[in-house]
Amino acid sequence: MATISRQDFIDSIRDALQYISYYHPPDFIKAMHAAYQAEQSPAARDAMAQILINSRLCAEGHRPICQDTGIVNVFLEIGMDLRWDTDRDIDAMVNRAVHEAYTDPLNPLRGSIVADPAGERRNTGDNTPAVIHAKLVPGAGLGITVAAKGGGSEHKSRFAMLNPSDDLVAWVLEQVPAMGAGWCPPGLLGIGIGGTAEKAMLLAKEALLEPVNLHELKRCGPSNRLEELRLEIYEKVNALGIGAQGLGGLTTVLDVKIRDYPTHASSKPVAIIPNCAATRHVHFSLDGSGPARLDPPNLDDWPVIDRDPGRQARRVHLDGLDREAVSQWRPGETLLISGRLLTGRDAAHKRIVDLLERGEPLPGGLDFRGRFIYYVGPVDPVGNEVVGPAGPTTATRMDKFTEPLLARTGLLGMIGKAERSPQTVATIARYGAVYLIATGGAAYLVSRAIRAARVLAFAELGMEAVYEFEVEDMPVTVAVDAHGNSIHESGPREWRMRIGKIPVVTR
């Protein structure tokens, strides 16, 4: 009879969390590279190139793929004949492993979890607690799957109680465009059908842990109704033309995974959970003989991408920019920006706007006139880094703060990821400002462009503090120009027309 020791269990999960922070699953990289090779949209192709380059850099340097190192999900299949050598419960052991993994001084991972979610939202500091799912199974073994799910993709989850006669595919095709680009496509769609509300959501999450093998299904053909649905949804979602980062292109999803479960005769519970370009998970087993051994993947599985953005990019120095200069930029244009850049996310924006509304001065040294703000919460640096991985966060969360900042501070532009609301696009145009995007899922690559960093305000907010970065040739794309034209509107529309396979689904 196998006996699992407390230390083997903790060490295995701790090591797995470090492992997935810098190693993409090789099947995901293979699918992403195939999509990159097939892509015809220059903007989408460049975004995928950045994601692939970033992935290889992280695999080589053992640094996080994304600055959002995720909420930890642990799935346990516990053998009913298994014995434990521990004085702690499973939750306590898992959370000890999370603590050790996220505070590792050689590769610290960002603590993103807040307690009291309906109240003060205090950061727990070490990314605990994890979300744990456990079930008893026959035998004496222990199967463990560890995943780290980024907030940008988790926020785009969808659930509905459909009628039995409702068209599931039509519902999916309504939901995916409404998700926007904040989930950092191209990635995966996990779909759960049946059971109850919570069962459908769990099925969708579990589906995302399966291998990326749509290419094999296309080659062999479907053998059951779920495989037929996978192919149909894959083809029709990609025909929407949303593309990488929502820029318009041929590939929005790399695979569609579906699980189902018997349900009530009057019900059809359906859930969608997307997984982003920072897909991170690993499965292993324990049998009582010691901690799990996770062998590094072969770096030959990672493609070498030749990318020279300087050939087609406009080089821009941020210091001294004015509205006349930014009015010349056009949606979809690639910029390489250099100079001084402010940062700020949700918590900092709220504090700044609260100060403005009370008529109080901003913290000393915090001056937005003629400046750009980058929506980012970086990972802590190690070694000679000035900052850790520092990719963009979803800009739509800052939409409600945009008008007061543009109206009262002289802010010139913003940098984030994904689309802005129509109202915010109109506000940007009204003030002659611009909105740029950096590639979600390329955080370590972006950090290579940051030459210096210092905290300017709200240091107690940790990763949400306001920094000043000094950047050199940081790659960004013009998403909303000073005239209110948005690449997230024009790009998918253009590529949907080019692909021309299905109409836009609307109600």
What composes the largest sheet? 5 strands, mixed, barrel
CATH topology of the largest domain: fumarase
Helix content: 25-40%
Estimate nothing, just give the exact number of structural domains. 3
* Overall radius of gyration: 23 Å
- Put simply, the count of helices is 15
Ranges where pLDDT stays below 50 over 5 or more residues in a row are none
Describe this structure in words.
The N and C termini lie far apart (58 Å). This protein folds into three domains: 1-148 and 283-301, no CATH class; 151-277, 60s Ribosomal Protein L30, Chain: A, CATH 3.30.1330; 309-492, fumarase (Alpha-Beta Barrel), CATH 3.20.130.10. The model has no long low-confidence stretch (mean pLDDT 95). It has helices spanning 6-22, 26-38, 42-61, 90-102, 151-154, 168-179, 197-207, 214-220, 225-238, 323-326, 346-358, 399-409, 422-430, 443-447, 487-499; strands at 3-5, 71-79, 83-85, 114-115, 122-123, 131-137, 142-149, 158-162, 187-194, 253-261, 268-275, 281-286, 314-317, 334-343, 372-374, 413-416, 434-437, 450-457, 466-480. The strands form five sheets. A five-stranded mixed β-barrel has the order 14-15-16-17-19. The chain is built from 15 helices and 19 strands.
Would you summarize the structure shown here?
This protein has helices spanning 6-22, 26-38, 42-61, 90-102, 151-154, 168-179, 197-207, 214-220, 225-238, 323-326, 346-358, 399-409, 422-430, 443-447, 487-499, and strands at residues 3-5, 71-79, 83-85, 114-115, 122-123, 131-137, 142-149, 158-162, 187-194, 253-261, 268-275, 281-286, 314-317, 334-343, 372-374, 413-416, 434-437, 450-457, 466-480. It has 507 residues and is of the alpha/beta class.
